[in-house]
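Board notes (copied after class):
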Amino acid sequence: MRWVSFAILVAVVLVLQTTLVPRLSIRGIFPDLLLIVALYYALQAPEAPAMLAGWICGLMMDLSAGGRVGVLAFAFGLVGVLVVKIRDLTFRDNPLLQMFVALVAGSIVHGIERGQRVLWGEAAAGMGDALLTGVFVAMYTAALTPYVHWLLSRARGLLLLPLRTARTRR
């Protein structure tokens, strides 16, 4: 994995996340493009760089949001580890799997982030409303995931991700 191409991709997606995505918001519900990128790398990149890429995407979201630094980095890193550990048991290029992984991962990430806001008194809504909003964000993100993964897979050579080879199990 080439880190320069990853950094450029994260920078472009972060700009889109902060400029374009608020216009796509539906009553405060928005897709999380950096989570989609982190999940793409968790499904496609080598193991250690994939987990690090997830953590970096979360850290960039933390820094751009201006909140407590580390909450989203922890959540993205946790999801990256979970996805990397189960990805060999799945068909990584299946759009339904990608949507399901994005739904579960988004629920975990945004549940942690919104729950932390409620616990620290930064959110006006209660815990139930905050978690429900996190699930709706995860659903919106999951709906866009196959399309973004398709675009990223077309740019695989540009991203310099190694091609997967079939492994034989003994």
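Comment from the instructor: The chain has one domain: 3-157. The chain has seven helices and no strands.
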